[in-house]
Amino acid sequence: MKRILDVIFSFLILLLTAPFIVITYILVILKLGRPAIFKQTRPGYLGEPFNIYKFRTMLNTTDKDGELLPNEERRHPVGNLIRKTSLDELPQLINVIKGDISLVGPRPLLMEYLPLYNEFQRKRMDVKPGITGWAQINGRNAISWEKKFELDVWYVENQSMKLDMFILYKTIKNVITRKDINASKKISMTKFKGLEQ
């Protein structure tokens, strides 16, 4: 049932947001350059890797050695706006339709974090990751890694259709009110280095 609802809702959201997707795509090309879509390998269900899609929100500026500059130095006003409105997340609906992720589930983190998980933290891999999740509506990047894992595992152990509907409702509300959107001035959270638990 969850898979069916994922596909139906994803198609509906894509149809409703199509004008915003087109405008965002054009803005990224004009202001940030190509490619407009950022692709990165992330761990899916049980750690199976997949390519996640997002609109690019940073410049591809490099140093004299050809290495990308730090995230903070590649910020751009258009990219900041796209992040604040969560428009960068819309391409992930394609991931949902493909079956890589669900609308609701623990956010897919980086592949490099997998070996750092302890037994408790690894439980977040027992379900498909999602575009939004219990941790996202309870603090997003404003909470610690320890709290984030605690919330993710709580979701895994208490998941239900009713809970998913509540998370989707809260996500839409938070996006509209911009609650917890870029709560930190940093582009992304501090890297996860492992936690004892």
Q: What would your notes on this structure say?
A:
This protein is α+β, with helices and mostly antiparallel strands and 197 residues long. The chain contains 5 helices and 4 strands. The chain has a two-stranded antiparallel sheet. Strands 3-4 form a two-stranded parallel ribbon. The radius of gyration is 17 Å and the shape is globular. The mean pLDDT is 90.
Secondary structure elements and pairings:
Blueprint: H1 2-31, E1 37-43, E2 49-55, H2 77-84, H3 92-98, E3 102-104, E4 130-132, H4 145-158, H5 161-177
Parallel strand pairs: 3-4
Antiparallel strand pairs: 1-2
Helix pairs in contact: 1-3
Query: Share of helix among residues?
Result: 25-40%
Main sheet summary: 2 strands, antiparallel
Task: Please report which band the strand proportion falls in: under 5%, 5-15%, 15-25%, 25-35%, 35-45% or over 45%.
Answer: 5-15%
Silhouette? globular
Oligomer: single chain
Q: Using the CA coordinates, give the radius of gyration.
A: 17 Å
Order of strands across the biggest sheet? 1-2
